[in-house]
C-alpha cells in the first residue's frame, strides 16, 4: 500500500481545530464539514505519521505525545501559510522582495549594518548570514541564500553570475620594528621574517588557499607555523611580535586596534583578492546589481573616509570596480 509522503494543509487545519479541545463534533461544526470528514483527515495524519495523535482510550480523548508535537509545530506552520498570500500581495504592491543575503567575514565587518539599512529600502523581509567565503559560497549553491558577497567568483558553478565589486592587494603584515630602519630592501626584510613564525588561517578558509599560494611562491623556509581562525587574533599576535602573515587590506582593517604596533608593505610580485556580488537565480539580477552599487557607495562615503582617518596607508591597496557594466 502506498503511503502519502507528507501532510496537506487541509488535514493539518482540521487537526489543529480539533486539538483545541479534543472535540471532533465541535471542530466539524466550526469548519463547516461533516464529522466523518474530520475523522478521515485525522486518520490520514495518523497513517502518515505511523502513530496516533489522539488517545481514544480516555474520555474525553486527549492528545498523545505525537499529537502535542504536531500541535506545537503545526500551529506555527499554519499561521505562516495563512500569511503567505497577503504577504506576497503586499510585497508586490510596494515593489519589495524577500532577500536572503550572505556576506563573508570581511564584507560583513566593513559593510554591516549600513548595507542592511540600505537593503531595507527595497526588501520586505531581509535575512543576512555571515561566514567564511567557502561557507557563503556553499549556501548560495544550495539555494540557502539569494545573493552573496564573497571572494570566490564560483567560476564553473552552474547558473552563478558574479558582479565584480572590488580588488585588493595582498600585503606582508609584520611587527612595526621590522620596517623601523630607513628604506629596508626586500632581502633584509625576508631575512628578518625568516626568524619569526608564519601565521596562517585553517585549510577550510578561502584565505588559506590564496595566502598559501603566495607564501610558497616566495620560497620561504618553514621555521614555525601558527594557525589561527580570525583576522583579529592574527593581528594581535603580530602586534606582540609573535609572527607575521600575508593579508589583504580589508582583513588588516578588521584588526585596526593593533595598528600602532603593526606595519605592512607590498610584495615585489602581483597578488590580489577580488570580491564579487554573486547570484544564482535570474530573478535576483537587478537586486544584485543594486546591492553592488549600494556597496560601492558605502565604501566611498563611509568605509574609505573612516580608513583614511585611522589607517590611510591601506587605501592605495583597495580598488573599487565601479566602472563595470551591469
From TrEMBL:
Keyword hit for Cell wall biogenesis/degradation: no
Keyword Acyltransferase: no
Residue ranges of domain HTH lysR-type in the record: 7-64
One family name in Pfam for this protein: HTH_1
Record's keyword terms, sorted: DNA-binding, Transcription, Transcription regulation
Gene Ontology molecular function, alphabetical: DNA-binding transcription factor activity; transcription cis-regulatory region binding
Similarity remark: Belongs to the LysR transcriptional regulatory family.
Stated name of the protein: LysR family transcriptional regulator
Organism: Turicimonas muris
Organism lineage: Bacteria, Pseudomonadati, Pseudomonadota, Betaproteobacteria, Burkholderiales
Amino acid at each position: 500500500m502506498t503511503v502519502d509522503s507528507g501532510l496537506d494543509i487541509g488535514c493539518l487545519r482540521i487537526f489543529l481545530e480539533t486539538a483545541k479541545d479534543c472535540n471532533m463534533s465541535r471542530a466539524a461544526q466550526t469548519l463547516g464539514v461533516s464529522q466523518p470528514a474530520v475523522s478521515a483527515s485525522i486518520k490520514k495524519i495518523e497513517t502518515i505519521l505511523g502513530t496516533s495523535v489522539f488517545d481514544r482510550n480516555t474520555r474525553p480523548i486527549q492528545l498523545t505525545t505525537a499529537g502535542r508535537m504536531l500541535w506545537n509545530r503545526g500551529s506555527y506552520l499554519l499561521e505562516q501559510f495563512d500569511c503567505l498570500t497577503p504577504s506576497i500581495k503586499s510585497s508586490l504592491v510596494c515593489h519589495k522582495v524577500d532577500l536572503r543575503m550572505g556576506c563573508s567575514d570581511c564584507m560583513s565587518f566593513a559593510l554591516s549594518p549600513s548595507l542592511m539599512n540600505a537593503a531595507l529600502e527595497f526588501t520586505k523581509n531581509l535575512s543576512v548570514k555571515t561566514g567564511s567565503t567557502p561557507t557563503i559560497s556553499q549556501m548560495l549553491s544550495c539555494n540557502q541564500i539569494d545573493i552573496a558577497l564573497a571572494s570566490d567568483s564560483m567560476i564553473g558553478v552552474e547558473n552563478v553570475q558574479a558582479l565584480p565589486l572590488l580588488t585588493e592587494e595582498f600585503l606582508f603584515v609584520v611587527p612595526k620594528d621590522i620596517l623601523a630602519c630607513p628604506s629596508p630592501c626586500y632581502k633584509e626584510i625576508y631575512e628578518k621574517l625568516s626568524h619569526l613564525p608564519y601565521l596562517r588561517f585553517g585549510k577550510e578558509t578561502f584565505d588559506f588557499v590564496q595566502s598559501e599560494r603566495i607564501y610558497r611562491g616566495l620560497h620561504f623556509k618553514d621555521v614555525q607555523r601558527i594557525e589561527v581562525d580570525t583576522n583579529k587574533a592574527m593581528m594581535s599576535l603580530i602586534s606582540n611580535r609573535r609572527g607575521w602573515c600575508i593579508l589583504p587590506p580589508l582583513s588588516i582593517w578588521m584588526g585596526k586596534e593593533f595598528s600602532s604596533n603593526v606595519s605592512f608593505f607590498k610584495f615585489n610580485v602581483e597578488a590580489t583578492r577580488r570580491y564579487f556580488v554573486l547570484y544564482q537565480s535570474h530573478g535576483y539580477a537587478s537586486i544584485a546589481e543594486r546591492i553592488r552599487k549600494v556597496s560601492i557607495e558605502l565604501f566611498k562615503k563611509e568605509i574609505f573616509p573612516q580608513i583614511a582617518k585611522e589607517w590611510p596607508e591601506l587605501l592605495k591597496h583597495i580598488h573599487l570596480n565601479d566602472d563595470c557594466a551591469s
